[in-house]
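User: Okay, second chain of the day. Same drill as before: sequence in, structure tokens out.
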Amino acid sequence: MYPIDTKNEARLHRVNQVSFKNFFFSGAILAILVWGSSFLIATIDSFRNSEFRHHEIEQYLKTHSPPLVHQKSYDFPSAFDASSTGKIPLNFTAVRDGKFKPNYKSLQWIKEPESISNDKGTYVLKDEKNGTVEYTIKSIVDESYQYTLYNGSSFEFEDVKYEIEALIASPDLTKAVLRTNSTHNWRHSTFALYWVLDVSTHTVNPIVDTTQKLAVTSWSPKSTDIAFILDNNVYVKNITSGKVVQVTFDGSAEVFNGKPDWVYEEEVFAGDIVLWWSPDGDKFTFLKSNDTEVPEFTIPYYVQDKHEDYPEVVKIKYPKAGYPNPIVELVIYDLVSGKDELLKLHSEKISADDRLITEVVWIANSVLVKTSNRASDLLEIFLINSEENTSKIVRTLTAEDSWFEITSNTLFVPKNASVGREQDGYIDTVVHEGYNHLAYFSPPDSEEGVLLTKGQWEVINGVKAFDYVKNEIYFVSTLKSSVERHIHSVNLLDKSVDGFPEIKNVTSGEGWFSGSFSSGTRYLLLTYDGPEVPYQKLIDLEESKDIKTIESNQHVIDNLDDYLIPEVHYEVVSLLDEESGDHFLVNALETLPLNFDKNRKYPVLFFVYGGPGSQQVTKNFAVSFSSIVAAQLDAVVVTVDGRGTGYNNHNPDLGSKFKFIVRDRLGQFEPLDQIAAAKVWAEKSYVDPERIAIWGWSYGGFLTLKTLETDVKDEVFSYGVAIAPVTKWRLYDSIYTERYMRTPQENPVGYENAAIHNATNFEHVKKFFIGHGSGDDNVHVQNTLKLIDEFNIANVENFDFMIFPDSDHSIRYHNGNKIVYDRILEFLRKAFNGEFL
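Assistant: Same drill. Structure tokens below.
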């Protein structure tokens, strides 16, 4: 589940924070990532028996708390007056005008036959200047080399002008696929017109025709063919002959070929295509989903064009928790023989109707397939010979009191005896002592891998790049800090540190780094995302030197000089588990009002998400909605990543149980930690304990409501705002929900307790607000309407509600995104001014 679309770093799971990120976070990556969980009893026993007691936590905080830093390139005074500085206090207009939105360049690195041994750092760059767009090929080695693929943002075909939305060059750079006229479908998918550009002649022709929109296209590694999906069927077009071959014929509203259905797009592959080419380009495999038994969910759209009188009704194959999932299979297609065949995935432990297929990777001429059961606590990994269609399970893994997250970064490592690799193999993400780490499996059918990293920290999203000559593996991790991301490397064959490779740092200092590597892994497009103003630069890894800055975002730096921006502090906070009497440590972020005076009493807003394995406290650059609230409402805004979230490395005795504690019990510990944190803030000298509010979106909306419901004894929170909340986990999709809760049939008490089920517990709240899009395909508005019905039955009236017609989970339709944040801000303004008393 994503809240408002973000980057899933690890499938930021993998949160829907697109509108929030683009609209308020000014390009910062809000890292909300989903990972694991475990039982409370095991956690509490481990903590109770620990020598890491409360007085030691206090000492730990003194020596291990991250410094209080500003998300600016310069310091603020402790208090200031806007009139004396001549600066403009932060306001919504400035944020919405994009004054603090960083620019990012994207590169398509070119993979040539000699890239592995002679990496020239060639790439395709989309450059926009003075309203014009140019797609060029450049080389890092030869700065004078520049070759234009296409110059312009549009083209004409049969006297009709088409605007180019995306360009994807073929591997050999002689052709490119252009996308135009996109129609948004679900979170990741669109339907569009696709075209082939001949780079040498600059001619453009449709892949099919101009009357049929395709779902997606994919270049073959040889650049000779394009696979595409039309009406849920797979086709292949040969570029030279123009011949189109239809591979499947059973595509329909219930059978999906090469394109994921709703739940696999949202919760498994986080993308719009499920088709994978073999390394030599002679074959590909694709996912076939049969949704015949999956129940349909109906969404009426009320304000669409040409539906003024009767709603447009859309039906989605949407499996709710406990209902039938799609039956998924893998098909392999041979371009030479023109034959397709189902791959054999026989299991004694996981039946076909209980099976999830979560990753598919070509390993030479074999296909590695990861499968799990619905509860995601049993993982089976198949290796299938593509020539003979013979398979065997090479690994079977079980998770006790936790779950397996979906990973998608397994990397094939071909044999090369000249550099010490005697056999083919692959690098995979494995769970070691509850944390995601890297392991090397060679030969590919090995049951046991060689562990490459270990410790109470996480490798994020597997291998980022591999130097096939030097055997150097590059990855991103939380090794330095749980609230930062740094790039590191290890050598595949090195065992110099206690039998493990030495970890080398590619990035240093404080910050949140990511990167894109050239095809030969000599060059790195490094992206720095904060806490100061983001930038991008090219780095030569072989010579360890900067080549040039790609993006400095000077406009953001200049605009920051003109405005007063709220100060942000990062902290590590000790919270009390009242049931056990033990303390534990959490990451927290505090945004202070512009004219902060520690002798005043300020209202406090808690901004929450809290989903399993997620993370909100991150050192990104962000002029965020929290900044707006702090500046315009003169309020303190706090975010705390409590139990159930990911990446916390402050509690050695808890370890991964900090995350896994929510297994089978969503909604039990998350609200307790927000209440405990609110108690900590209520004791601060500058906080008005009568004006503490909480708000969140999606899982954050659920946590907001669950916290208000749970807070009936302490009554710490007076106000709340829940946007697009889950209110009953039986209503949410099966793959996400069952990963943490199993099925309702297996865990009826867990589902009952996790639901927002006690309406009368909301009577203590002074006022709360709920907003939901009527066209939300992710968290259906049914969630909110059922809760409101329960409020009506219980005579609970202390809330406001707004529907956003036809808006999806991110609430963007017909100006919805502006209105929803205006409503939230106005509600909080009235709450903090005492207008609801």
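The first helix runs from residue 18 to 23.

User: Thanks, on to the next one.
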